Amino acid sequence: MMKAVKDEGMPTYRNPFVHGNLFLILTIEFPNKLEPATQQQLRGLLPPALNVPTVSADDAEVHAAVDMDPVESFNANKVHMQSGAEAYDEDEDEGSQGMQCRQM
Q: Is residue 77 within a helix (H) or strand (E), and if so which, with residue range?
């Protein structure tokens, strides 16, 4: 199964403020049945449950995993990958223009 979390992936090239989508490929295999004794043994071997909330619901970020085509996601983000170089451009307004440092 493939799911995606919109806008939570890697930053786009030359524009670190725009993020792509995070794709998750999940393969989950569950047994058909577990006897109660086996369930108790597993509980003793495994660490405590992870689904116990550690922060209040007001402090947690909520994201939804949705079905999304990776090719369509890439094509939609192409526009963000071609622009946004301003964050990496040098500030040409500071200092005097046309002057260079002379080293002796």
A: helix 70-82
The domain limits of the chain are 2-50+60-86
| Interval 12-60: pLDDT, tens | 888 889 999 999 999 989 889 999 999 999 889 988 877 776 667 677 7
3-state secondary structure of 17: strand
Please tell me the distance from the alpha carbon of residue 17 to that of residue 102, in angstroms, as a whole number: 37
List the beta bridge partners of residue 2. Answer: 25
Report the distance separating Cα 52 and Cα 62, nearest Å: 16
Given a contact cutoff of 8 angstroms between Cβ atoms, the answer to whether 68 and 21 are in contact is yes
Contact 63, 5 (CB under 8 A): yes
